[in-house]
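Follow-up to my earlier ticket, as requested here are the two runs.
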Amino acid sequence: MDEQGGRAAVLDRGRSIQASLTEYLDQRANEVLQEWADLGIDVYAFSDEIVAQLDEMLASVAIDFVSELEGNGVDNARETYDLYRSVLAE
């Protein structure tokens, strides 16, 4: 298998793992929410607008962390962070 094929296989397997993990976490989150409701605990969800505002407010924290990592010799910190953000956007 050439490098391109190997990369594609790794990405494909990663997506499969991500889908399985997401399904499990969603199921578990729903179970916990039901357990909390049974205990009389109120759960609140933020709107997409509020989440976007929080992301904007906290963006500098992530950038500062990446800069700190780079200062500590982690050469690919920015690249890794950018990849993480791009995956979240998908």
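Run two:
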Amino acid sequence: MLPVLEKALTVFAGQFCMTGSRLLVQEAVYDTVRDRLAERLRNVRVGPASDPKSDMGPLIDKPNVERVDKIVRDAVNAGAKAIVGGGPITDGPLANGAFFRPALLEVSDNSLPIVQQETFGPVLTIQRFCETEPSRSPTTANTVCPPAFGREIWTARCGSDKLYSTLGGT
């Protein structure tokens, strides 16, 4: 499942209306999912979309790199924890382009703009929940989730990992 989660964020460098930008993970598997996903995101090869060795291409332009970077910095200043800091590439041959490394932010406050608004960049928030039924989780209460946005929750149930969609049932 981790490769799917990685690609949900990095396809089109997160500039896609259905980009996975929020991940809710049950407490029983949270640390494992967070740590393994963080390792995958740290290893994403950012580069020209035309390079077959690249895992993720650039953002549309430099102003969007600055915009996404500001969103990440604001989220961290507001209480999010940068598990993978991401950010603009400022050294080497890619520094002249609009390249942004993927970011993974741990959040617990649903009111943060990073949770409530679409980033349109390679930034994923991850939240822990403690309930066995995702629909009863306090993390999902009072959450803005327009019908166009999909979200999924990774849970441990009956001794095995299972992905539950909060929009489509089990």
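The only thing I checked on run two: The chain has four helices and eight strands. Let me know what else you need.
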